Amino acid sequence: MDALDLARWQFGITTVYHFVFVPLTIGLSPLVAIMQTAWVRTGNERWLRLTKFFGKLLLINFAIGVATGIVQEFQFGMNWSEYSRFVGDVFGAPLAMEALAAFFVESTFLGLWIFGWDKLPKKIHLACIWAVAIATNLSAFFILAANSWMQHPVGTTYNFETGRAEMTDIVAVLTNPTVLAAFPHTIAAAFLTAGTFVAGIAAWWMVRLVRSGDEERARDVYRPAVVLGLVTMLVSGAGVAASGDWQAKLMFDQQPAKMAAAEGLCETQDGAAFSILAVGDLTNDCAGVRHLIELPGFTSFLATGDFDARIRGVDELQEYYTEWVTSWEEANGVEATFDPQDTRFYPNLAITYWSFRLMIGFGAGSAALALAALWLLRRKGAVTDKVWFGRLGIAAIATPFLASAFGWIFTEMGRQPWVVAPNPNTSGVDGVWLLTARGVSEVVSPGMVLFSMIGFTLLYGVLMVAWFRLMKRYAVQGVADTEHDPSPEANPPADDADGTARPLSFAY
Amino acid sequence: MDLPVVWFLLIAVLWTGYLVLEGFDFGVGMLLAILPRGDKARREKERRLMINTVGPVWDGNEVWLLTAGGATFAAFPEWYATLFSGFYLPLFLILIALIVRVVAFEWRGKIDSPAWRGWADRALIFGSFVPALLWGVAFANLVRGVELDADHQYVGGFLALLSPFALLGGLVTLSIFLTHGAIFLAMKVDGEMRERAGTFAARSSVVTLVVAGVWAVWAQLAYSGKGWTWAPVLVAAAALVLVVAATRLRREGLAFTASAVAIVAAVVLIFGSMFPDVMPAFDPANSLTVDNASSTDYTLTVMTWVAVILTPLVLLYQGWTYWVFRKRLTIEHIPEATGLTFDRVVSRS
């Protein structure tokens, strides 16, 4: 393998790994904030106990998300320095904004929330977790704005002299239709993840308590958490589907090759079918693809809203891009940076096809479970002792994680061979594109990339085991039987008054 | 002043924030290996006392680094690209260190077992030591200049980063942060640990004065080429002398202020001696400068607005955090360990 392949593997490993933790943080911090709000508003101790329980799980998860996020920012420069030179003028801006506007807020207020239970007035302390929740979501917006620009460069011109992309309109970058669709999609997926997480753990506990005869506690503490989780799943599941549909239409317009590859569509068709099962020979050659089960006209419908619309296949797009890139370079007197005749202008078919289906399948499966579970618990105060219900709840936790991972694999692998995808029509700017192969660092040897990749992968493996054991251990511990109100309102003034030091409500 | 210069200054400010704030986090982290005394239980309590002095703030402090990184990417893409790909291995080590440090802070108390805490302590010590050393090495290389080719790519290789001047630079940040951390600790705790940290600072400040003094004069004579950078050299020297005196007198607040001033002066010296280069090359024709490395005027204008509006806010709420947690901690403040164990999963039903 050369440095390019290794750098791509490293990016894939570190990004998918990072995004195991991110959606849970994004979705769970608002849910914990909602629980704490319920406590502050109603004074019902149940919500304080739930806040503390899910808050601990949030913190275990938050730490590793932060830790792996640092790698994300650094590796653009380390492994992808030529990409960074090309895009820095545009791409760097949302990253810097994220740090200034969001990351500072979430890190600072998280510290206040963790350590401030007995120091801050109840409402100020509550505001801290909301600041964290809002900032994590704002973080996601800036990162997605940067990523969406790679999918669909806007607000930018190409500087022929320097060979770089240059920003001309920050508003266009931040209101890129691609990010306006990707943001609700990613956030909804994050809420789906957190909703499934809360509902799954609480459902398992509810069943366990009912079976051990403690129906009272199951109804009092866990049922509200199950319902909160399920409603979150249902609403966010609908959000994922609606925003995903919008994204599909944008993709048809902005990245037709990704669309065609997602369907394994080789030849251009009117009224293209949605393939449910296809097999190929894994040579990434269209000739090997056979479609076994299809929904007629459905791909055309997803892409345009019209069942009979014409969808360009991979073969036509290959010709189209070849012709278009060549003529653009000739027309602008740009020295050819690659041989269009020798470049494949569409992504790996098998990966794009299957990651698309796995994303949809895992996401839809999770939302469907929520509907069934809500039906089962529809009566007021209903709890269940069905073992399968608890087990299914635990098993379901994994599905949105998998859906997110496949979603990113799809959107990033599907953009190939480009790292900055061109706009082959009037929807964006002209001339701003970069092949992934041209973005890799020139001075970093394959050995160095391999070395760092092995280092990160080993460390990430160890941390994954530790994270999983911690999460599991704290989930199995369950919600505390009682939880003392730690707020300064409910406690005598601090230690100075009588000269003795009172232990902190929380310490590492 | 034109915008690339403004951003050069802003990035220096971000690094100042990072080194002043995270500097004492690193110091406290490293001192975990040195300061705790007594029997096992006592040492564990003391370690927790130390960790909790930075507990509420270390995460916010670290964001200054991420902002400096993001700002460099946005304002000086060429600098970001050449620096990060060129200093590959040191940055890789720093990343590993920062990762284990973050999770160790948050996960340490979650499991109540000596072995688990032992790993967390090792991670905290390693994760503080490595960046404390390597940031100095990296900055010394920027002061000294590196081998860039005509495309501004770093071609010097890893070993070229380990010159005596650069290694001494590593010792400078290491010793400054150790002293800075000890002073911070003495300022934030009471009881035996306060005394011990104060004594440590009084001794280490002398070492810091010598090491940093030699390095600063070396940097000034050999690499700066500017008369005015004698000013930060002298300010740093005066501040470090003051640190020595104040730590002897146990004037903790004064010592901390002086230590922070010394770090600010060091950043001024480093950035001042580079200017107008952001990455000086051995062949000056190949140097990356504030002009040839910067983004376009439009991008810098946008980012200036963002920075001008948000940076004061950041200072405000981070300052408030320090106010909320202003009280000195004592060993009595540290609650019993609340971690669970992996030994036996207790079922309560």
TrEMBL record, chain A:
Q: How does it sit in the bilayer? A: Multi-pass membrane protein
Q: Where in the cell is it found?
A: Cell membrane
Listed InterPro entries: Cyt-d_ubiquinol_oxidase_su_1 (IPR002585)
Domain of life, per lineage: Bacteria
Region called Disordered, residue ranges: 482-508
The transmembrane segments are 20-41, 53-71, 91-115, 127-150, 187-209, 221-242, 354-377, 389-410, 448-468
Keyword list (alphabetical) reads: Cell membrane, Electron transport, Heme, Iron, Membrane, Metal-binding, Transmembrane, Transmembrane helix, Transport
Task: Say yes or no: keyword DNA damage present.
Answer: no
Q: What is its main location?
A: membrane
> Family assignment?
Belongs to the cytochrome ubiquinol oxidase subunit 1 family.
Q: What is this protein called?
A: Integral membrane cytochrome D ubiquinol oxidase (Subunit I) CydA
According to its UniProt entry, this protein's organism is Cellulomonas phragmiteti
TrEMBL record, chain B:
**Which keywords does UniProt give here?**
Cell membrane, Electron transport, Heme, Iron, Membrane, Metal-binding, Transmembrane, Transmembrane helix, Transport
- State one Pfam family annotation: Cyt_bd_oxida_II
List the InterPro entries: Cyt-d_oxidase_su2
Q: Which family does it belong to?
A: Belongs to the cytochrome ubiquinol oxidase subunit 2 family.
Report TM segments. 6-35, 82-103, 123-143, 155-179, 200-221, 227-247, 254-275, 302-325
Name used for this protein in its record: Cytochrome c oxidase assembly protein
**What gene does this protein come from?**
cydB
Q: How does it sit in the membrane?
A: Multi-pass membrane protein
Per UniProt, subcellular location reads as: Cell membrane
